[in-house]
Model the fold of this input.
Amino acid sequence: MRAELERSFELELHDSVWPLERDELLMRVAGMDGLMLMLTDRVDDELLDAAGPQLRIVSDYSVGIDNVDVEACRRRGVVVSNTPEVLTEATAELAIAILLALLRRVAEGDRLIRRGEEWIWAPNLMLGRGLQGLSLGLVGYGRIAKAVERLALAHGMEVMHSSRSGGMPLDELLASADVISLNLPLSAETRHLIDAAALARMKPTAVLVNTSRGPIVDEEALVGALTERRIAGAALDVFEREPEVHEGLLGLENVVLVPHLGSATEETREAMGMLCVEALRAVLLEGRVPANAVAHMG
Done:
């Protein structure tokens, strides 16, 4: 990806896993024709003004664009692109992986061994649950949710869903499913969708899986539900104030925590990068709207 960027553009590169501080980001974007930004970079009026009127495209290295004020970009005629489809399978795989890690107590067992605790095989050692016969409730029913559904069915789960376009009412889904999997974008409507009231509707034996966006879950309410065993567990790839993790989650054994690894395979991240490169080329070199544009004029 980097080689393709260097071949196509005069490049200003921030070569670090850590994002730029806001002030430096605002300084570095000045005068740029195109920006390739991460989900940790907030794109708003302030940043767009700092970039200048010549800016033509913001290529967001993410499928979710909750970090981008799309309307602010549209008002300025700035194209916004994202990276759909290429991370679908990787994210669905991770949802099943962390669900299995939770139900089969994989991470808990790993911690037990690393602590040096004595153990021996026994019929009742760290009994968990298998996926066969459990019901999976998908909240959201887009590409990733449908990929999770396919994998869940292959493991013998029963699947139901709730979404704006159909399925069952969310309250009914929450009350019925053994596993609730969140697979929807962050918006004003979905922020804290899973709050104390939603968690109270879940069965005491049910678990929550979130591979979408952290603020969809009220983490304070989740900690309370987990601590008091009002739900059985949670597997989280994303967090409400990421990268900060609620301190109440850290000491709980009925939680699996991973650092936003949904799309973290070499193949997927390269494919995401190339979608960004192709969008930049389309707008800046070829004068056309890329296929993965989510906002543009006309």
